[in-house]
Design brief:
Rossmann fold; 3 domains; six-stranded parallel β-sheet; 14 strands
Length: about 425
């Protein structure tokens, strides 16, 4: 079986590599020659645990190819996945220009039946626009080649994307024909040995499923952050509350950890896009608007705690920050709360020293030379007035607090992820500030 994946970003590269892993002949296509040359030499454009090893192995075995030539690469392919970016516009809507440009290029170059699959996160109705672009391109060529359009949203967690793809808990596919459904069943058969389902549905429902899933998870996070803030006011402990509600199987214990707000490439963008889609169709997503408002406010919670302890004017203060990426096991800095926190501290006159196990280079695109980049977590602490924990990387969970206290100018910890025991730190003489406790 031969397929093409257009776009070698997070979704496209993981998708193509995992299909190659089960023996499918895959060509990953991108317009960025530098990125393609790098991939051929084993240089990854993103960080994802296990991805580099898998890319190198399948490239060496001849199952995974990289190219900038879409016209040549899609010849003979049974399926072409569109996995290019859909960045948010100023009004929050998803920008489809890259998706539709790829659809047009496919129509201009295909020479056999294929299923054109939207893998990018796209609003309801995008598949019809893709179908129109392909059809019009074929018409201009005077060709009458049969094709189908399908929607196959991804549900990959950054930091665990390989496992999520190879052992999915569900695969959602929107199709318009039995022929397309059979093709997609054949393609995904190797991934269904764990017994989890492939859920076939109409295309608009598949497109909506992706947005609904991410928006529901974002809602749980913002709800818990709102509860955490109320817990502080009322003298309750959000960690206890979380355990109490998480044991209810109707609620579950996932995505109810309070913190400094969600970020990344999916939740912020998809919540905005769904709000905008509703607005364009005369409906107001009141709950999601509140989710977004809570999340924006939550990114200021840690700075407010810092100012309450040290005062509004932070001139002459230096703060150590552990963690920059929006979550552990990724270098993704998109919509990362750390950037908002750092900018607020700098605006108040402070200096910031930062360390992240993976995201330091990526962070420089956002932070430039406004902060000091430390060689490790302990290096950030030297002459710092306090420690701020923003990302819950595993290596931050059990630091040597004797060393921490010797390096810090004052024993103050702002724990944005509630990874430390408040009572233990207070017993050691620390001033401890968590979220909701």
């Amino acid at each position: 079986m031969k397929i093409a994946v257009i776009g070698t970003g997070y979704v496209g590269l993981v998708t193509g590599t995992c299909f190659a892993e089960v023996g499918i002949d895959v060509t990953c296509i991108d317009i960025d020659q530098k990125k393609i040359d790098g991939l051929k030499n084993g240089i990854m454009p993103i960080y994802e645990p296990g991805l580099e090893t898998m890319v190198k192995k399948n490239f060496e075995k001849g199952r995974l190819h990289f190219s900038t030539d879409l016209a040549a690469s899609i010849q003979g392919c049974e399926t072409a996945f569109i996995a290019v970016g859909t960045p948010p516009g100023e009004d929050g809507s998803a920008d489809l220009k890259y998706v539709l440009a790829v659809a047009k290029a496919i129509g201009e170059n295909m020479n056999n039946y294929m299923v054109v699959v939207t893998k990018s996160t796209v609003p309801v109705g995008t598949a019809q626009k893709v179908k129109k672009e392909v059809s019009e391109a074929l018409k201009r060529r005077g060709q009458n080649i049969e094709f189908d359009v399908a929607s196959n949203p991804e549900f990959l967690k950054e930091g665990a994307a390989i496992a999520d793809f190879l052992k999915p808990d569900r695969i959602v596919v929107g199709v318009e024909s039995e022929k397309a459904e059979e093709m997609m069943k054949k393609l995904y058969k190797p991934f269904l040995l764990n017994g989890h389902p492939t859920i076939f549905m109409d295309v608009p429902s598949a497109e909506m499923t992706k947005y609904a899933a991410n928006s529901m998870l974002a809602t749980k996070i913002s709800f818990m952050n709102d509860i955490a803030n109320l817990c502080e006011i009322m003298g309750a402990d959000v960690n206890m509350v979380r355990k109490g509600i998480g044991s209810d199987n109707r609620i579950g214990n996932k995505f109810i950890y309070p913190g400094v707000g969600y970020g990344g490439s999916c939740f912020p963008k998809d919540v905005k896009a769904l709000i905008k889609t509703a607005q364009e169709n005369g409906y107001t997503m009141s709950v999601l608007k509140a989710v977004e408002e809570v999340n924006d406010r939550q990114k200021s919670v840690m700075v407010n705690k810092v100012k309450k302890h040290f005062g509004n004017d932070l001139t002459g203060r230096t703060f150590a920050m552990w963690g920059l990426s929006f979550k552990p096991k990724t270098d993704d800095m998109r919509e990362a709360p750390s950037v908002v926190i750092i900018n607020a501290l700098l605006a108040a006159g402070a200096k910031v020293k930062v360390y992240d196990p993976i995201a330091m280079e990526e962070a420089k695109h956002d932070l430039h030379d406004t902060v000091t980049y430390a060689k490790d977590e302990y290096d950030t602490l030297i002459d710092a007035d306090a420690l701020l924990v923003v990302t819950e990387w595993p290596e931050f969970r059990l630091p040597n607090f004797d060393v921490v206290s010797r390096l810090l100018k004052s024993k103050v910890v702002f724990d944005g992820r509630n990874i430390y025991d408040k009572n233990e730190l207070v017993a050691q003489g620390y001033s401890y500030y968590g979220i909701g406790i």
